[in-house]
Task: inverse folding
């Protein structure tokens, strides 16, 4: 099987972002999506710390300490960009003005429950940031993650065992093995990486999956 | 009216030093500290707070300090009793991590948007509000909830503060403030939520020099302004 690397997952996800959309990319893995957004589409990037219209990374030596994203990395501002305070920024999020947010995950359940902020471990220091606001506020919540944990356990589960970020919020899951839609009647597989059968994907995932139409027809 | 009478009532919020601005800050105070990462962080005001010595503090900030300076140093010295923040855990938050694991600091973890709105609500005179954020999660446990239409909400209360320490870009003697790019972040809402707001600014200007159309925080929300000349960047 040809497992996708992180850049390939980001590129696959970026293809699904519509022209004209306003998008928030979560810290870490989702930030990679910015590098693959189709150039023929005008897509506006939002960051929780009060900026719309984020541009590419600044050239070395031109970083400005006052211009950063939610991951605290230096960014640039596109023509048309704007700044606003934190309450307005989260008003945009909860007020359903954002078209998409892309979040990482520890687990996603078959109902679209998301767990991505806390392992629940006794010694773990919890940190939530803006994840709970994004998960309830964005019109489309997309998750980008490795399909399996390092020890081979599926991160797509019947019920999340980690503390929830939000219930019923995930719409689509992009992993190194597949793209899966979360629908009321279950998980619909849209894409599978080359060399992996539907049956093998379902076995690795450990929950019931629905076949993509082209595979049903075979 | 006599000229002397006018001078006697002149509003002047400029103070000469960060030390003077924080001289009356008592033990047990609740202090909002602006900034997100280094952007908008009032570093010199925090240094002055460390030197000032007040203890048993409750701090409201998005994070819980990083590395060894600023808020991290305040926590490291055992001066913070409780912190309200959304993201305490960072690769270099060792002072908080240690204090938390040794149970020397209380943590109230608040989703970032709820943190911002609770601060905003305090400044706007709102008694409480319902937010969909955190419904059905561990962070809503024990809180009042309500279904409005087809959405479930959690009741959240405002966060008031005795002091807000923020960083802005320019100010006049009425306390009108402008900000620079993403350094704005929590500044405007913290300014409104605190009884005494101290702004450190890069530049002070004469009254009338700030375009009223670009003032972000009107002076009504600001009590003290300290000019801190930016450090020259090392080449």
Result:
């Amino acid at each position: 099987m040809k497992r996708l690397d992180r850049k390939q997952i980001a590129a696959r996800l970026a293809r699904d972002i519509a022209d004209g959309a306003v998008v928030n990319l979560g810290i870490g893995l989702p930030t990679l999506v910015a590098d693959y957004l189709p150039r023929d589409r005008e897509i506006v990037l939002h960051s929780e710390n009060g900026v719309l219209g984020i541009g590419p990374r600044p050239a070395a030596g031109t970083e400005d300490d006052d211009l950063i994203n939610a991951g605290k990395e230096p960014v640039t501002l596109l023509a048309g960009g704007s700044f606003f305070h934190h309450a307005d920024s989260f008003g945009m999020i909860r007020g359903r003005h954002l078209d998409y947010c892309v979040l990482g995950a520890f687990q996603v359940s078959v109902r679209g429950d998301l767990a991505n902020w806390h392992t629940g471990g006794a010694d773990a220091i919890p940190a939530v940031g803006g994840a709970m606001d994004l998960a309830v506020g964005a019109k489309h919540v997309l998750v980008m993650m490795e399909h399996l944990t390092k020890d081979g356990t599926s991160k797509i589960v019947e019920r999340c065992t980690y503390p929830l970020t939000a219930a019923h919020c995930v719409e689509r899951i992009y992993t190194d093995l597949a793209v899966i839609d979360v629908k009321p009647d279950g998980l619909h597989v849209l894409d599978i990486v080359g060399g992996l059968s539907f049956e093998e994907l379902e076995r690795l995932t450990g929950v019931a999956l629905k076949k993509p139409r082209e595979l049903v027809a075979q | 009216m006599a000229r002397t009478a006018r001078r006697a009532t002149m509003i002047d919020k400029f103070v000469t030093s960060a030390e003077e601005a924080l001289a009356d800050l008592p033990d047990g105070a609740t202090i909002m500290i602006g900034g997100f990462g280094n952007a908008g962080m009032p570093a010199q005001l925090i240094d002055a707070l460390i030197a000032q010595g007040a203890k048993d503090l409750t701090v409201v900030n998005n994070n819980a300090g990083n590395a060894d300076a600023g808020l991290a140093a305040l926590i490291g010295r055992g001066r913070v009793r409780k912190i309200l923040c959304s993201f305490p855990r960072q690769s270099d938050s060792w002072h908080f991590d240690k204090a938390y694991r040794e149970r020397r600091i209380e943590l109230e973890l608040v989703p970032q948007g709820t943190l911002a709105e609770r601060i905003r609500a305090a400044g706007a005179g709102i008694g409480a509000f319902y937010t969909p954020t955190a419904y059905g999660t561990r962070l809503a446990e024990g809180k009042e909830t309500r279904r409005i239409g087809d959405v479930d909400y959690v009741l959240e209360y405002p966060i008031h503060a005795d002091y807000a320490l923020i960083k802005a870009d320019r100010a006049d003697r009425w306390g009108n403030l402008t900000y620079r790019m993403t350094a704005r972040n929590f500044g405007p809402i913290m300014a409104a939520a605190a009884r005494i707001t101290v702004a450190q600014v890069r530049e002070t200007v004469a009254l009338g020099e700030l375009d009223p159309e670009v003032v972000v925080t009107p002076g009504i929300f600001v009590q003290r302004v300290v000019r801190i000349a930016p450090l020259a960047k090392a080449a």
In short: Helices of chain B lie at 3-8, 18-21, 43-52, 70-76, 94-101, 112-123, 187-193. The first strand of chain B starts at residue 14 and ends at 15. The domain at 26-109+160-227 of chain B is CATH 3.40.1080.10 (Glutaconate Coenzyme A-transferase).
